[in-house]
Amino acid sequence: MTFQPKPNEFALTYGRSGDTRRDMNALVARHMPLVRRLAWHIHGSMSSIVDVEDLVQIGLVALVEAAASFEDRGLVSFDQYLVTRVRGAMIDELRRQATLTRGAMKRRRAYNDAVAALTDARGSRPDEAAVASKLGITVDKLRSDYASAEAVRFDSIDDVYSDEGPWFMSDEPSPFDQLADADQREALIASIAELPEKEQLVIQLYYVEELNLEEIGQVLGVGAARVCQIKKSAHDRLKKNLMRRLG
């Protein structure tokens, strides 16, 4: 899902030449929530070793730069310009980190292959000097490269609360999957209307706006685990409502 701001939301009404420091500070402050939302969206959409707060900081730098460089020519709003700049900065950082991660993984594999080969030949685990010689590097380089490979984190915050995680998966198709096949949208709409307000909102944000659990939690001011509970409750109610309506 591509994040799109509301049309003309917070559109600038002044040109760059008329900007004042106060205008820029107000503009930056007003758009900080948008930057945080983008950070959560990108972090939730991609498996990342970059912490979400690091993405927020990258986005804030891009926000300040965007506020300083934007010229209102009536073609795009500042929000549209900002989303492009912030997303670009965050994705560039993810790509940079991915490159570092791939390098660390390659070094780790080379190290493991060398250790395995020497162990097979000698019958015992080799020391650092033997491994370094096998790889054609110095012991100091071996230590630094292996240390950097060890330090890489491959887990993601999304693995903790994810619809694909083992704690939240369900073998049963959702009510939406069932009705998509039967094309019985009227029954679905009526059943959703009977849900409590918060459950309706979660269903709307998850299936229509396509937000993930972390993003919905940001909207509601609760944790992703609580959002998952609300979503499950909504599913249970919908199944009962649909069974009653469809027989």
Structure description:
This protein has 247 residues and is mainly alpha-helical. It is built from 10 helices and no strands. It starts with 20 loop residues before the first helix and ends with a helix. 24% of the residues are buried.
Q: Gist?
A:
The chain is mainly alpha-helical. It is 68% helix and 0% strand.
Features:
10 helices; disordered N terminus; 247 residues; mainly alpha
**Poorly predicted ranges (pLDDT <50, ≥5 residues)?**
1-19, 150-173
How much helix, percentage-wise, in residues?
55-70%
* Helix-and-strand structural type: mainly alpha
- The rounded distance between the terminal residues' Cα atoms is 35 Å
Radius of gyration: 25 Å
The rough form would be described as flat
Number of helices: 10
> How confident overall, as mean pLDDT?
72
Total count of strands:
0
The largest sheet is: none
How much beta, percentage-wise? Answer: under 5%
Series of H and E elements: HHHHHHHHHH
Which helices and strands, and how do they pair?
Blueprint: H1 21-45, H2 52-69, H3 78-122, H4 128-135, H5 139-151, H6 175-182, H7 185-193, H8 197-208, H9 213-220, H10 224-246
Helix pairs in contact: 1-2, 1-3, 1-9, 2-3, 3-4, 3-5, 4-5, 7-10, 8-10, 9-10
